[in-house]
Amino acid sequence: MAFNFNWSPLLADTSRARDMLTTALNKSPKPPIIVDDIIVTELNLGSTPPELEILEVGDLAEDRFRGIFKMSYAGDAFLTLKTKVQVNPLKTHLSTRPDFASPQPLAAASGLTIPLSITLSNFRLSGFVILVFSKQKGLTLVFRNDPLESLKVSSTFDSIPFVRDYLQKEIEGQLRVLFMEDLPAIIHRLSLRLCSPEFQEIEEERLDGTKDGVATVDPLATPPQDAVDAFGNPLDESQISEIALDPVGEIHASFSQKNILRLAALSESQRTLSLFTPGIRDAVFRAWAGPDRDASGTATPALTRGSLSRIQSTFGTMRSGASSIASGSQGTHDTHDTHDSRPTVSSTTYSMSGLTLGAGRSRTGGMRKRKKRVVDLRKKTTETGADTGSVNGQSEMASAYASETSSVVYEEREAGEVATPPRSPARPDLQHDEPHGILDYGEPSMLADNTASTETLTPAAPLLSEPPRKSRSKSKQRDIYNGETIKARPSSRRPPLSHNQIRQAQQSTSPLLRSLSFDKIALASPPNEAESSGGILEQAWMTKMAQEIARKVQQEKDRQGFSRDRSPLARSSKGPTGGIWASEDELEAPPAYVA
Amino acid sequence: MLDFMENVQNAFYEASHWNLDNSYGALNTTARELLDFKIPQGLRLQISSLAAPNFATSYTLGSVGVVDGSVSYLYSSLPLRKEFKSSHIDLKNVIRGYKHVQELRRPDENWWWELWHAGKRVDRKNTLLYGRVFLPQSRLEALYLRRLTPTRQLRIAAVSDSNLNNGGTILALLQNDVGKYSTEYMYSTDSALMGVRGLYNFGADPRNAPTEPTSVDQVEPVHGRFSAGAELYYGLLNKSGGISTGLRFTTLPNHPGFPYTMTLTLNPLMGNLSSTYAVKAGSSLALCSRFDFNFYSYESELQLGCELWRQRSTTDVEWAVKKLRPGWKQRTIFPDDDVSGVLKAKVDQDWRVGVLWEGRIKELLFTLGASLDLKKRDQIFRSVGIELQYSS
Predict the structure, then answer these.
(1) How close B362 gets to chain A, by Cα (Å)?
(2) With a CB-CB cutoff of 8 Å, which residues 91-110 of chain A face chain B?
(3) Which of A46-60, A264-278, B144-158 has the least mean pLDDT?
(4) ipTM greater than 0.90, yes or no?
């Protein structure tokens, strides 16, 4: 892996950095020789970037990064400071000593303060750097050890060895503190300015000051009540760092009590067996926190790419901690988002449906599980939508149907996906289930998309098989889960159904739903394409995957006869549970249950 | 106000005929007392006692944010007979202000100190030992003072504190004072600092003073004294040093006009020139000014200060005075005898003001001080403090 380290933009404007350095340098208690504020007058980062050697990448995504580097720097950066120093060594010496045993000179210790400009150059740094980047939280850079190897201090007093040595020693000490403590805070703050449009906005707003706040801002983006000075005056550093380090906290503060409760419920739902996930409106999730991210088009590409890389990294290790990303994506409620670019994949995968069962299966198994996790999260999103009502994506789709049906769809989908335990080897519907898996395979790029597909496809499987039987077996499971779910669900747009009711409803409506859900796919596809154009990387990847899938399909087709033979066999052995098989296979377990 | 222990040490100097003022370090004592007086911070209580003529103890409890304190003991081989009770102590002794420089005293002859008993010399050199422990900080101060000869004194001061380099520092000071001139040699373990100080008094040599008093018209009376001195320091370890020279002219007690003192000190290395002028404008008022100028950096500084002695009120005897027969000749009270306190104030060119009020309430000596910054309107008071002393 390689990084393109763009050093030049950092050179452009160092005024802010200068200001912050000034503040930082004056924060800590100064040595007695320095009798005035230290002012950074010149800061040049030089033309040579530091060398970074990646030692470990702990977390990698589009919007996040965590890694450990070995950094070494031998560039031509320089820094010029201005201050006033006490040049009488006797005075500075005696000022730190107790009076009792002091010679107490009469006038030999009288002071002479003279302005001093110090130039620090020839920095030689080497150390281990922990770099954590998050789009929302900015860049955090921490030195694990003391990085300062050497530097050259040149000042007006180079001719006086004592003063020179003293300055060198003192400045090195100060710089060590700076590197270990202050620099991380400064970099963090700078990064927030550069990266987070939200923060930038706040800053600008503050800088503009007089301008009327005509433009309505996302409530989440309201400026935190911090004490950042509007005119670049020295600030209270502790305050700065506080703000800089915890912008999220500020944002959270603007959540309503209700939303906080919902968030709590959401996180709870990940830990329990409950399938319920509360809907959260206007929730800002980490990955798309900017105020402009509401539009699905902008948000998705970033997400997809992130998830893509994520998947690549976790390819071998299934069920590693991928859930975090998925949960991040879960925030996209919009219907558009959810449909995003899905159909392309689904169409391809459909054709190969049954094929994966055979040889391909073992290989895709791991991926499938991973995909499933993603699927599940998306499902949550849609559930959310359904729950919270007409505004959100799910309901939008659902609006075409009767509200009841939509709810049933929801139930069914949920049940189908959740029904993991019984494993029935084969059944004719395989085709339709398989695509599911493969869809997911293509899926990871579009995080929020699956909802539509899962919704539509899962029901589709029972439709092709014999509805009554399967729906019954499903409904059994549904009973188990639904009971729980319904109980847990606080938003009672739909009255809790008894098990019998559910079963009846599902039995009666399922065929219809299934057919409808197919329609849905068709409906959903056109907008998706438009939206999917957002991420080039994603598209490229999609096409690649599509090709690969097509190739696989071809391969599978050769073996199709075999698999066909096998599937009925298996089915005959475990006939009654066949309906569940699909769901089990594809929708093995929601991420929350995956260890 | 002088610490109890400082007061006892001064008494030791006095008893052993050592003139503290005849030293280059004491050249501008007057200006320092009027301009650089220490303003107490927080609350400080001191209980002290001269339990025996040779032994003194003192306990201090202070509260500046945290409670701290100190315990100190003093031993003097010379019995100290002075009054140290806070109820009877002379305020002029413990409150320093304008310093009247006295006529130089002829140093004791060596044989004056000799004590012979049965053909053997039995006299001991007078010694003072002093130790003080600051409790939470675990800092120890120790002083060893020894009168080697009537014109020579050895003073060793040590501070032990874990916060200091090498765990502490020791200063050894060898002082010679023959009246006409005085020299001091010092060595500090801290960065191996060595120093020399010298003061020369122009005018008559007290050693050659006529043993028989001559008539006034024979010798022109001297009303003032001119002194010059210098100091030189060099730190062996940090290879840095310091130098200064100073001049002083001060009036002697027999000066017919108001007493005044002028000093001029110069630090040629750092280009610092400092001049002070202090005048005792009345029996209870002294004024002082100091002007500092640095001819390298062109920085200057001006400080003004004054002290105002408050006479003891006579309200409690006023009724009796009124009843006196008009023809009765009232015995005038000597003004210096009855003072109840002193108010000191100083101000500098940045409008930083220091106010100090020292005096006695009942049997307690108190010091009440505040430092103000008139430029900061929102936070004028920088610090306020009170010190209470009781000694028996």
Answers:
(1) 31
(2) 93, 97-98, 100-110
(3) A264-278
(4) no
